[in-house]
């Protein structure tokens, strides 16, 4: 079942996020649990954010979080996926929930990514193309010294 996340889901959301983090290209970075919790509370309670979860047998098995914000050049809203992780095959249903929410928020586009580097890029690109998503540029990352 796909549903909107609530504050009561916070411990399970954090646990899923930690599993996503461990499997991602960001696994070498430390985790600040207080920040993870604050981020989830921000999308759960904020006017411009949302989190959806997949629930199976009382256990959360997947999540997608997103937000909307106006563009740089106009007031048109763009929806952005912030975190997308599913262990139960619910990924596309979670994406559909986020997309429907973005439409209700009057967003004109939805941006999703695989920055975490978990999904096979070729397969991810094919699946996203079948869902009507196109490539939006290329992203690069460079580590910065502190």
- The global form is globular
The amount of beta strand, in percent, is 25-35%
What does the largest sheet look like?
Answer: 5 strands, mixed
State the helicity in percent bands: 25-40%
Tally of strands:
5
Q: Provide the succession of SSEs.
A: EHHEEEHEH
Structural class, by secondary structure, is alpha+beta
> Strand sequence of the main sheet, in spatial order?
1-2-3-4-5
- Which spans of ≥5 residues are poorly predicted at pLDDT below 50? none
- Counted by DSSP, the helix tally is 4
> Roughly how many Å is the radius of gyration?
15 Å
Provide an overview of this structure:
With 146 residues, this protein is of the alpha+beta class. Helices cover 35% and strands 26% of the residues. A five-stranded mixed β-sheet has the order 1-2-3-4-5, with helices on both faces. A hairpin with a 6-residue loop joins strand 3 (59-70) and strand 4 (77-86). Helix 1 crosses helix 2 (33-45). The longest helix is centred in the N-terminal third of the chain and has 14 residues, at 10-23. The chain is globular. The protein starts with a strand and ends in a 16-residue tail after the last helix. The mean pLDDT is 94.
Task: Record keyword descriptors for this entry.
alpha+beta; 4 helices; globular
Structure, briefly:
With 146 residues, the chain is of the alpha+beta class. The chain contains four helices and five strands, in the order βααβββαβα.
